[in-house]
């Protein structure tokens, strides 16, 4: 791709057609690096502080939430980061969830849930790996399913929706539930 | 390592120091291993922790037992009642505190919660714990053997190091330890649970493991 770009680059009248000068040689690798960074930045979507989303949020890329989300967040194969300013009142499904802000609702991750210092989760967590840092707030149940290779069966699915107050019976919590099969919808911001 | 990581590590170190974190003493535990083995055979047991949330404990119990862990920080409730000057309402509150269904929990970690409540509140809480514990379930609790030497109001965060060791991390409490309960009181309070193991540790703590008789042994006794 880059060779083609350079080949079509118009050269000035006085520019020698031979090999590039040392200065050009050092600058050349920096350009793809910048582009790569730009592309990576494009892959992580950021929901800013002032954004309020009510509804269902589906996506196929990593997401950082600094604003407010109410409803449901589903990033099955990607990482969801709730930033320090993020406030989530929703059920969350993702590959990995990193919490630095506030989450009120059940969190289900196929890989890991990480509640960092200052982060808060009020709801049930279902994930094979859970890390709760010192200084983090958590209220609810943690369900760390065993890995398939281990002897215990993997009966637990996603937890039932957790009401604002944790007055839910354990029988309800321990019931296996079906994964929701919701068609993807565009993000609706209000 | 990013700059934010450095800052968060610094904050963590500071909070550890405030709570007596990393350099807190480690004491052996005899009952924890017994508690774990009593739950090991169960498929996805439900564990109730009455202490504050400790990340390493959640990871430890989750990995050891593949269990579901429910954290209900009762120490916070005591603090709130002290702060509001409503300690007389604590027994009534504790008798409604746990929403779990009867016989739904396989294991309960009480830590030393009973040292911080009066006898009436302790009885109310114990009654609820007996109710929600499943037949053949286990309950682990620690009790002081003597009145505290100092009147310092601190709770202890018990951090599981491994099956044999706990780290004791003190942190600020709204009230100090109350008059220690006698063995007889403990047995009566938790009836019909049976004390299956009792260890007197060098640090003046009694570790008590109680089991709820299984339904079959109950009917056989009748």
What is the secondary structure topology, with strand pairs?
The complex is a heterodimer of chains A (190) and B (222).
Chain A: H1 2-8, H2 22-43, E1 45-47, E2 52-58, E3 63-65, E4 68-82, E5 87-99, E6 102-104, E7 107-115, E8 120-122, E9 125-126, E10 129-132, E11 137-143, H3 170-174
Parallel strand pairs in A: 1-3, 2-4, 3-4, 4-5, 5-6, 5-7, 6-8, 7-9, 7-10, 8-11, 9-11
Chain B: H1 3-18, E1 26-28, H2 31-40, E2 46-49, H3 55-65, E3 68-71, H4 74-83, H5 90-97, E4 105-111, H6 119-132, E5 133-144, E6 154-162, E7 165-172, H7 183-189, E8 194-200, E9 205-211, H8 215-221
Parallel strand pairs in B: 2-3, 2-4, 4-5
Antiparallel strand pairs in B: 1-7, 5-9, 6-7, 8-9
Helix pairs in contact in B: 5-6
Account of the 3D structure:
The complex is a heterodimer of chains A (about 190) and B (about 220). Chain A contains 3 helices and 11 strands, in the order H-H-E-E-E-E-E-E-E-E-E-E-E-H. Chain A has about 190 residues and is of the alpha/beta class. The longest helix of chain A is centred in the first third of the chain and has 22 residues, at about 20-45. Chain A starts with a helix and ends in a 16-residue tail after the last helix. Chain B is built from 8 helices and 9 strands. Chain B is globular and about 45 Å long. Helices cover about 35% and strands about 25% of the residues of chain B. Residues about 5-20 of chain B have low confidence and may be disordered. The interface of A and B includes residues 145, 146, 155, 156 and 174 of A.
């Amino acid at each position: 791709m880059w060779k083609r770009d350079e080949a079509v680059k118009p050269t000035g009248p006085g520019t020698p057609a031979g090999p590039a000068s040392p200065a050009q040689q050092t600058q050349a690798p920096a350009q793809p690096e910048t582009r790569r960074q730009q592309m990576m930045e494009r892959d992580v979507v950021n929901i800013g502080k002032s954004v309020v989303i009510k509804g269902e949020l589906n996506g196929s890329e990593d997401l950082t939430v600094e604003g407010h989300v109410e409803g449901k967040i589903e990033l099955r194969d990607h990482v969801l980061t709730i930033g320090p300013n993020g406030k989530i009142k929703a059920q969350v499904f993702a590959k990995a969830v990193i919490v630095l802000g506030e989450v009120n609702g059940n969190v289900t991750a196929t890989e890991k849930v990480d509640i960092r210092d200052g982060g808060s989760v009020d709801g049930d967590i279902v994930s094979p790996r859970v890390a709760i840092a010192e200084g983090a707030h958590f209220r609810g149940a943690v369900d760390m399913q065993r890995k398939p290779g281990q002897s215990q069966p993997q009966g637990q699915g996603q937890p039932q929706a957790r009401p604002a107050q944790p007055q839910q019976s354990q029988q309800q919590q321990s019931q296996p539930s079906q994964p929701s099969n919701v068609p993807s919808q565009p993000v609706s911001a209000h | 390592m990013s700059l934010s990581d450095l800052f968060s590590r610094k904050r963590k170190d500071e909070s550890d120091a405030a709570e007596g974190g990393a350099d807190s003493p480690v004491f052996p535990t005899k009952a924890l291993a017994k508690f774990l083995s009593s739950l090991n055979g169960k498929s996805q047991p439900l564990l109730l922790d009455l202490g504050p949330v400790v990340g390493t404990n959640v990871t430890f119990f989750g990995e050891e037992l593949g269990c579901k862990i429910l954290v209900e920080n009762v120490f916070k409730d005591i603090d709130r009642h002290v702060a509001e000057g409503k300690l007389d309402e604590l027994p009534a509150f504790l008798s409604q505190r746990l929403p779990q269904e009867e016989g739904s929990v396989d294991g309960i970690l009480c830590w030393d919660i009973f040292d911080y409540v009066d006898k009436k509140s302790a009885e109310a809480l114990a009654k609820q714990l007996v109710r929600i514990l499943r037949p053949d379930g286990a309950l682990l609790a620690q009790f002081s053997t003597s009145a505290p030497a100092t009147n310092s109001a601190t709770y202890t965060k018990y951090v599981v190091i491994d099956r044999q060791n706990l780290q004791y991390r003190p942190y600020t409490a709204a009230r100090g330890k109350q008059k220690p309960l006698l063995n007889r009181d403990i047995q009566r309070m938790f009836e019909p649970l049976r004390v299956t193991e009792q260890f007197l540790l060098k640090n003046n703590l009694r570790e008590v493991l109680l089991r709820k008789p299984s339904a079959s042994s109950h009917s056989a006794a009748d």
